Structures are given as C-alpha cells and as structure tokens.
Amino acid sequence: MKKIIVASDSFKGCLSSSEVAHAAAEGIREVFPDCEVLEIPVADGGEGTVDALVRAMDGTLIRCRVHDPLMHIIESSYGILGDGKTAVIEMASASGLTLVPEEKRNPLLTTTYGTGELIKDALLRGCDRFLIGIGGSATNDAGTGMLQALGFLFLDGKGDELGKGGHILEKICSIDHSQVMPQLQTAVFTIACDVNNPFSGENGAAWTYARQKGADEWMIRQLDNGLKHFANIILETEQRDIDCIPGAGAAGGLGGGFLAFLRATLKSGVQMVLEVLDFDEQIRGADLLITGEGRMDRQTGMGKTPAGILEAGEKQGIPVIAIAGSIEDTGFLNQLGFLAVFPIQPGVVMWEKAMDKEFASQNIQRTVEQQLRIMRYFQSLK
Questions:
Q1: Chain-centre distance of CA 177, in angstroms?
Q2: Could you give the CA distance from residue 114 to residue 129 in angstroms, rounded to a whole number?
Q3: Number of neighbouring beta carbons within 10 Å of residue 57
C-alpha cells in the first residue's frame, strides 16, 4: 500500500470526523509505516460540517450572538474557510429544533431569524460565498425570518410590517426590498439539501415535517395554506415559481426562501462538501479509501457521507471499506459497493463505555489495523 485515504463522518456524540481519521491513520501506520496516509475530515452537510471544513480548509471558527428560534439571545458559531471569503453555516446552530424545549415547540412562532444573523455577520466580514446546511430546523417560516435579518420586509394588506414565525405567511401581501443588504447582490449560496419535498401540499414542508416541530393538525393546515399563499406572492413579485421545486420544502420551506430571494443552488450535502475539498483530486492514485460513521444501515445509501465517499472511489476504481460503531444490513451495504464493512466494538459493551472517546479511538485503530494485516498478508503472496 502506497497511499490510503481516511475520510469518515463523525461518530456523533463521541468522535469528530478528524478524530476518527486520526485513529484510523494510527492503525494504518502500524501495518504500513511507509504508506502515505491522508486524513480528510468530511461531513454530509449536517452536524459536524462546519468543524470538518474549518479543519480541512485551514479555516477559523467565528462566534457571535444571535437569536434562537423563539428570539432569545444565544451564542452561536459558523466557519470562515482559509480563503477568507467562504462562510460555512449550520442553520441548526441558530434555528435548530434542539434549541427549543419540547413544551415550547410551535412552528407558527419559531423563526429562522438567527440563521440570517449568521449570514449577515459573515457578509459584514467580507464573505461572498456561502455553504449552508439546513437540516434539523425548528421552523416552518419559509425562511422569512432569515430574510428579515438581511433587510427584507414582509408587509400586510395595510402596508404594515409583519412579525416573525410561520403564522405570518398567509398575511404577506407585499415584499419591500429597499433595506436589503447590498452585499447580497454578489453573494453566492450553495445549500446542502438531501430531501426532495416541494414547498407546499401533501408532501410539502408543513405536512411532512411540522408535526415533529410541535404542530397539531390545525396548525399544519394553517402553515400549509400560508406556504401556498406565500408561493403565489413570490410568483407575482419575484417571478419565481418555487412551489413544486424538489427541496423547496426543506427546513420548513427555508430551501424555497433561499431559491426565491438569494438565487441559491440546492445540492446533496456530501457532494457539496466533497466539491469544496476537491476530493476527487485528493484521492487520485490512492490504493484504498476508508470511510465510516457512527451507525451504518440502509439509510447510509440515502445521501450519507459513506455513500458519497463510495461514489467518489468507484469513479476512480478505488476500493472502499467502512467502519462504524454499529452496523445493520451488511449484505445491503456490500451490494451498494463497499468492499467490506466492520463494526468497531470488541464485544457487548455498555452505551457509556462505547461512547468514551479514548475507548472508541482504540477500537477504530485496532479494527483498521486488523483489516490491513490481512491485506498485507495477501500482498506478500504475490
């Protein structure tokens, strides 16, 4: 083995993607000490994306105070990559469901305003390229809160400015652009989106996702009616028909808000990350790719990080093996194309023990080392 790439997602709640890569690299060097090993932190646009790209691209973590989904002040963060122009944002860090206590969840009231504040902060620091993951939202406001933070005004039939939250959607009659930040004219937005839901309707944002955000059936109907109404207003005022675009319903319609007002591009999360990393070029000439995530099962093939790594490897004829804290449907994963998949646990262990950083790192190193000992043996027979 002359060149091996380690590109794993984080083991959520336990190890970051860079920590997983480092542990695997230690196992590789035990068997192939002269091998070139590249540790590439990766993610799929969700939790861990900022950390992975900041580490991989010599970036900086920026902390700032923003409003959470219920307009309480919190400290949040985002990344600026090494070029000083590219901001990486996870909307969940400002507008995520985990920021709202279960008993206070109400998508008629929650807002994406804090996500807009993160974008505004990055614009004021000179960023003009944005990579934004929009999973895990607490909201169904179609991005109106985010847009309000950037200077858009949503007005009712009397010309009065509306408040915040999903309840305003059915009241919007016009949109005032006069106070919009001028920096947005040249800003480019790429949105990590791995769902295909339209803006409104039975498969849209409200009917598909609002219940888990605290909505009952009456609220869902109100939100869906609001989304339909807002889509018509957008068509009239912005000349953009977003209602049936796949992904427009992501994050409570935030995907549609980005499409309509910020000319965004929606992409698979892992593909967005791999393009930024120039991953295809980095893996060129590799003998093996090692990837993984905390749990691998049938959902792994649905836009998760290991599936993206597998696709990249297959394009260049590089075999891909995977490691995970737990694995189900091994046969299915092999059919997807993984050469082999390996759980890292040495046996039955308590959850607290399995999630211990040092224990998990040792298990990753041991598992990778044992895999490569077999490869080294068969190489020696040639």
A1: 29
A2: 19
A3: 18
**Two tokens at 203?**
């498969």
Contact assessment for residue 116 and residue 146, using Cβ atoms and an 8 Å cutoff: yes
Give pLDDT tens digits for 99-118. 999 999 999 999 999 999 99
For residues 173-189, give the mean pLDDT. Answer: 97
Q: How many CB atoms lie within 10 A of CB 232?
A: 14
Task: Please state the rounded mean pLDDT for residues 226-253.
Answer: 96
Q: What is the pLDDT of residue 382?
A: 74
Q: How far apart are the C-alpha atoms of 272 and 18, rounded to whole Å?
A: 18
Flag whether pLDDT at 55 surpasses 80: yes
Mean pLDDT over all residues of the chain?
Answer: 95
The confidence band for 233, taking pLDDT boundaries of 50, 70 and 90, is: very high
Q: Give 21's Cβ-side CA count (13 Å radius).
A: 21
Within a 10 A sphere around the Cβ of 382, how many other Cβ atoms?
Answer: 4
Rounded Cα–Cα distance for residues 295 and 13 (Å): 12
The tens digit of pLDDT for each residue in 15-39 reads 999 999 999 999 999 999 999 999 9
For residue 376, is it left (φ>0), alpha (ψ between -120 and 50) or beta? Answer: alpha
Tokens of 29: 């060097």
SS (H, E, C) the chain: CCEEEECCCCECCCECHHHHHHHHHHHHHHHCCCCEEEECCCCCCCCCHHHHHHHHCCCEEEEEEEECCCCCEEEEEEEECCCCCEEEEECHHHHEHHHCCHHHCCCCCCCCHHHHHHHHHHHHCCCCEEEEECCCECCCCCCHHHHHHCCCEEECCCCCECCCCHHHHHHCCEEECCCCCHHHHCCEEEEECCCCCCCCCCCCHHHHHHHHHCCCHHHHHHHHHHHHHHHHHHHHHHCCCCCCCCCCCHHHHHHHHHHHHHCCEEECHHHHHHHHCCHHHHCCCCCEEEEEEEEECHHHHCCCHHHHHHHHHHHCCCCEEEEEEEECCHHHHHHHCCCEEEECCCCCCCHHHHCCHHHHHHHHHHHHHHHHHHHHHHHHCC
**What would the two tokens of residue 104 be?**
């206070």
d(CA 95, CA 110): 8
